[in-house]
């Protein structure tokens, strides 16, 4: 069953006539269209992609299963066009992606639709994206490989007097040279006590011997993201740095060893949490353990940080325990993994053991 058939099955199960899709990634997933300024309307037997002159030709080239409609933005509102198509095809109930449109915009649109009932729909397409097909996994694998290579190139440049910002720029440059479409997100590059900021912004602080350096980054291939974190020590690590690093490493390894198909995300979180709880640094552990990965950096399931969900075979997730001590620093290790028919595969391959640079 292809993706369009799957979402039509959901539409039928929910007892509505059509689904209105606003999210760019959800539209790409169902139609193949990679542009912007588009809305998708999926019915039981027809599917429409609504765009304007800027993307019309691109949409016609990419969307073989959708009828592409070019809207004149000056003469016709989007709401009016949706109403016109819906009336033509006798839509009486319309589900819409409530998570991806503002309340004000939706109220204005709905005012043009007196003839059918509107039903909020949450994560209908995202629930399909949860499990990846082989082409999606391969794209994430390639993105992770680029990140591995870029970090390998960067290691020789991590030395005293270089700043966080300089290293972050260089790492993103190396990924671009290797074919990344963009960074997965603004690179996190934090030294010494600033590494205790889980998502801090690189600054102009120069590195010094003895510093921790936390690096969180990723590449993008075919619109799919990778996401990896490594923590280094400049020079020789002290005993506390070694101890905390080993604790985080053990928590991550325990989760990797325990992961099985359809295991509860909360159960996996508790495996890593149990290791961290036994350490002297239990009160400084980060919340959650990871998240799904794909066209969005953060996708279902959220591990220990949201509604509990099973981790299905062929879903790609991150496993990223961390310990963050204000005024001292933080250590996180993060890898992208997927459960295949042969078991767990780690898509990120840069060494996980503590590296003293």
UniProtKB/TrEMBL annotation:
Creatinase N-terminal domain ranges (all copies): 3-131
Domain of life: Bacteria
InterPro entries from the UniProt entry: Creatin/AminoP/Spt16_N (IPR029149), Creatinase/aminopeptidase-like (IPR036005), Creatinase_N (IPR000587), Pept_M24 (IPR000994), Pept_M24_MAP (IPR001714), Peptidase_M24B (IPR050659)
Pfam families assigned to the protein according to its UniProt record, in alphabetical order: Creatinase_N, Peptidase_M24
Domain Peptidase M24: 139-340
Signal peptide extent: none
PANTHER family for this protein: AMINOPEPTIDASE, AMINOPEPTIDASE YPDF
Name used for this protein in its record: M24 family metallopeptidase
């Amino acid at each position: 069953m292809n993706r369009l058939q799957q979402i039509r099955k959901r539409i039928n199960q929910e007892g509505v006539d059509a689904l209105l899709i606003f999210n760019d990634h959800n539209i790409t997933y169902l139609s193949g269209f990679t542009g912007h300024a588009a809305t998708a309307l999926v019915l039981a037997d027809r599917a429409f992609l609504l765009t304007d002159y800027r993307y019309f030709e691109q949409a016609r080239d990419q969307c073989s299963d959708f009828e592409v409609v070019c809207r004149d933005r000056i003469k016709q509102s989007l709401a009016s066009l949706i109403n016109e198509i819906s009336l033509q095809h006798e839509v009486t109930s319309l589900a819409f992606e409530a998570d991806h449109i503002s309340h004000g915009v939706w109220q204005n649109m709905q005012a043009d639709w007196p003839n059918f009932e509107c039903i909020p729909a949450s994560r209908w397409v995202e629930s399909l994206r949860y499990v990846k097909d082989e082409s999606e996994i391969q794209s994430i694998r390639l993105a992770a490989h680029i990140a591995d290579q870029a970090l390998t190139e960067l290691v020789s440049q991590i030395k005293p007097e270089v700043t966080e910002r300089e290293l972050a720029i260089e790492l993103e440059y190396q990924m671009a040279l290797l074919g990344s479409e963009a960074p997965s997100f603004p690179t996190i590059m934090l030294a010494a006590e600033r590494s205790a900021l889980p998502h801090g912004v690189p600054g102009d602080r120069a590195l010094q011997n003895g510093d921790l350096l936390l690096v969180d980054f990723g590449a993008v291939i075919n619109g799919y993201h990778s996401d990896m974190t490594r923590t280094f020590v400049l020079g020789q690590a002290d005993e506390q740095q070694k101890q905390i690093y080993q604790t985080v490493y053990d928590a991550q390894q325990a989760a990797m060893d325990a992961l099985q198909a359809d295991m509860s995300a909360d159960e996996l979180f508790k495996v890593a949490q149990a290791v961290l709880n036994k350490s002297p640094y239990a009160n400084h552990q980060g919340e959650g353990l990871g998240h799904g990965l794909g066209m969005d950096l953060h996708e279902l399931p959220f591990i220990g940080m949201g509604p509990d969900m099973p981790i299905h075979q062929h879903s790609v997730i991150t496993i990223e325990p961390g310990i963050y001590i204000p005024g001292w620093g933080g250590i996180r290790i993060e890898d992208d993994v997927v459960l295949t028919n042969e078991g767990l595969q780690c898509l990120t391959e840069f060494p996980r053991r503590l590296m003293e640079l």
